């Protein structure tokens, strides 16, 4: 079974028509999608989801961007899923992301960086629960 982490394919990547390419990379890395849905966040929902960043100067811009269009939200499962998905995404700023990572390939800017992933197993419990409240978060 392994660990679970939350993944978001952001509005920039959906608009660029790379949903399929990104999910192929998840599967190719052994990160198995076990839940998935497409939706558009309201501004308020984006603010709730990113509440840990509410004091940051980029909070308003980030939450407007995340509410701009449809996103795809997935729960990925695998051994050390949190860390391995972060490695697969690359650094937050696509310009600094290692070549071959999802953000290096599909990201546009530090904000429009194609994908989100939980940054710790603690965060993943909040994030999975936010989008999939009926899931058993004590999966391991
Ligand atoms: P994500 O992994 O979803 O977590 C928070 C998001 O905030 C991040 O990806 C970026 O989209 C955005 N972000 C982080 N740092 C900055 C920044 N300095 N300027 C603008 N957006 C940022």
Mean pLDDT: 96
CATH level 1 class label:
Alpha Beta
**Which homologous superfamily in CATH is the superfamily?**
Nucleoside diphosphate kinase-like domain
Helix share, percent: 25-40%
- Indicate the radius of gyration in whole angstroms: 14 Å
CATH architecture: 2-Layer Sandwich
CATH topology term? Alpha-Beta Plaits
Percent of residues in beta strands: 15-25%
Which compounds are bound in this model? adenosine-3',5'-cyclic-monophosphate
Computed structural class: alpha+beta
Number of strands: 4
How many domains? 1
The largest sheet is: 4 strands, antiparallel
Strand order of the largest sheet: 2-3-1-4
C-alpha end-to-end distance: 7 Å
How many H/I helices? 7
Q: Can you offer a commentary on this structure?
A:
- The protein has 140 residues and is α+β, with helices and mostly antiparallel strands.
- The protein has one domain: Alpha-Beta Plaits.
- Helices cover 39% and strands 19% of the residues.
- It has seven helices and four strands, in the order βααβααβααβα.
- The chain has helices at residues 11-15, 19-28, 43-49, 59-66, 81-89, 102-106, 121-131, and strands at 3-9, 32-39, 71-78, 115-117.
- The chain has a four-stranded antiparallel beta sheet.
- α3 crosses α4 (59-66).
- The termini are close together.
- The mean pLDDT is 96.
- Adenosine-3',5'-cyclic-monophosphate binds at residues 53, 58, 62, 92, 110-111, 113, 116.
């Amino acid at each position: 079974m392994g660990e679970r982490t939350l993944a978001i394919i952001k509005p920039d990547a959906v608009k660029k028509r790379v949903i399929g390419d990104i999910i192929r990379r998840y599967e190719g890395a052994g990160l198995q999608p076990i839940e998935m849905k497409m939706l558009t966040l309201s501004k308020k929902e984006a603010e709730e989801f990113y509440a840990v960043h509410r004091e940051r100067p980029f909070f308003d811009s980030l939450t407007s961007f995340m509410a701009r269009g449809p996103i795809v939200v997935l729960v990925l499962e695998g051994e050390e899923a949190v860390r391995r998905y972060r490695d697969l995404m690359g650094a937050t700023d696509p310009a600094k992301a290692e070549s071959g990572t999802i953000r290096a390939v599909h990201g546009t800017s530090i904000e429009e960086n194609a994908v989100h992933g939980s940054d710790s197993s603690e965060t993943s419990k909040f994030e999975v629960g936010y989008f999939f409240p009926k899931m058993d978060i004590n999966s391991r």
